[in-house]
Amino acid sequence: MCIKNFIWKILLCGSGRSWFLDFLISYFLRKVDDAMQCETSSRKNHENSFLKCDAKNCTPGEEDLTGKIRILASVQIKENCPQVGQGLMDLLKNCLELETEKTTTILCGFVDHFQSSPSEDFGWGCGWRNIQMLSSHLLKQHQEAREVLYGGSGFVPDIPSLQRWLEIAWQRGFDKQGSEDFDQAIYGKRNWIGTTECATLFRSFGVRARIVDFISREIVSRSNGVGNYVSKISPQVYGPMDKYLSKKKNDISEAVSISYDVKAKPRVQQALIDWVWSYFSDNKFKNSSNHGILVSQKAPLYFQHDGHSRTIVGIQSRCQRNGSIHYNLLILDPGHPTESMAKSLKENAGWQKLVKRGVHTLKKPLYQLCFIDPGIASGEEMERLKNLQSVRVEV
Q: Which residue ranges does the record assign to the UFSP1/2/DUB catalytic domain (predicted)?
């Protein structure tokens, strides 16, 4: 009470008020500087620890890798995720419940939204942000994954820390061939990544991450341009989009735009939608019935296409008057600010444009999904996970 009275008397005095405000401003500026120096110091310690570990042995052995893992688990930095109070998925569920049309909606459980930062990763970090979204779900809803992911830290690491985890995965023998696209090093770089890197990272912890490709036979069968390019890709090793992202951005983009008419032949898009429905519903009920809103035990999906990736957190179906089924993917886009999405959902205004994506909006001839099967691998299965395979759906 004495301190309160003292401050109150200072504020009543003009000169005292000026002095006191100057003091507060100076105090908080020092706090901000201290926080920034602490973060910079932490990042430098992070890097120095790895430099020392790298210097021990040019060809990392098991002991060296164990040391790196132990160091990274202790110095990795937690990603700063804007908190929206009730939770984004709960807000989305509330909005879906307010819709008047008869639909069946299947949502995955908890997912935090991680947005790309203009000052950090805008234009190249969407893949990492989607990995963070999948990680938030696994850490929150799957205890077995929480125990193994990121050294058992229990939190979602920032992008530089994730880059280090991916490098360790490569050094442990996960997706050796894919690591060559990045010269076995990705820390501090702004390379685009895709489903291959997502699956590799999760597999290195024993998480059963799988890849499925959706591609038009029209493209696969072409004898030149994209056809030659796609035919070089083993369907048991890589999907077309990962090689595209790392090597062939301009060539394939131009060839696809000439050779593929998505409006006339939306087979790839429909195959994708059907697969996503089967995944979330687990084939337990028909899409033509009105089931309201259901929460699936399945993890969200890493959704890759030409130039961007997003996270699929659910799917909605609606039976139309002509008997056909209309679908909407429910998507979290790292390109959208978290606060803007939360505001739209809280106000139940404009959120559909941010979250819903119908078949007509899917205009690419190539798509990939990375999905998570339940359970944690060990022993011989862990060794098999080092060889990345994908399932190709050609339509």
A: 105-370
Is 340 part of a structural domain of the chain? yes
| Residue 158: inside a domain | yes
Query: Rounded CA gap, 47 and 35, in Å?
Result: 18
pLDDT class for 24, splitting at 50, 70, 90? low
Q: Is 108:280 a contact under the CB 8 Å cutoff?
A: yes
Separation CA 13–CA 284 (nearest Å): 72
> Domain count of the chain?
1
* Burial bucket for residue 124 (CB in 10 Å: 0-12, 13-18, 19+): middle
Instruction: Encode pLDDT of 322-375 as tens digits.
Output: 888 999 999 999 999 999 999 999 999 999 999 999 988 898 889 999 999 999
Q: Is 93 left (phi over 0), alpha (psi -120 to 50) or beta?
A: alpha
Q: Is residue 62 part of a domain?
A: no
CB 213 within 8 A of CB 239: yes
User: Which amino acid, 119?
Assistant: S
- What are the pLDDT digits (tens) for 134-162? 999 999 999 999 999 999 999 999 999 99
Q: What is the CA radius of gyration of the chain?
A: 24
Q: Which residues constitute the domain of residue 297?
A: 75-394
Q: What is the DSSP letter of 316?
A: E
Beta bridge partners of 133: none
283: domain CATH number? 3.90.70.130
48 belongs to a structural domain: no
Confirm if 335 and 126 have CB atoms less than 8 A apart: yes
